Amino acid sequence: MKKLGLACMLALFGSSVAAHEYHRWSGPLPALVEQNLPADIPASDVLVKDGCFFYLYEGQVFQLLNGNSGAAGLPICIG
After folding, report:
1. Given 4, 22, 51, 63, which is the most exposed site by the fewest CB atoms within 10 A?
2. Gap between the Cα atoms of 64 and 25, Å rounded
3. Which residues are within 8 A (CB) of 23 and not within 5 positions of it... i.e. 6 or more apart?
4. What is the pLDDT of residue 68?
């Protein structure tokens, strides 16, 4: 699987898509994020926008959704 990083997204889509909206998460990932992050996505590809978590996969940004019962399908956000 080929993955494009944030730098590639900036080159492809311009700074308005990634640099001003998404920020790389710094520090340890919250447990809920770790539990729901696809196994083949490294922590370095986790992004945050407006307090909600996203991840990069094959050059596209996807919102990280909760897979736990009772909250299944809801975005994972902090704050």
Report:
1. 51
2. 13
3. 47, 48, 49
4. 87
Residues 54 and 3 sit within 8 Å (Cβ to Cβ): no
Distance CA 72, CA 67 (A): 5
- Whole-angstrom CA distances from 29 to 34, 46, 53, 62, 67 are 6, 9, 10, 17, 16
HSE-CB at 61 with a 13 A cutoff on CA atoms is 19
Per-residue pLDDT tens digits for 3-51: 444 444 444 444 444 456 899 999 899 999 999 999 999 999 999 999 9
User: Would you state the pLDDT for residue 69?
Assistant: 80
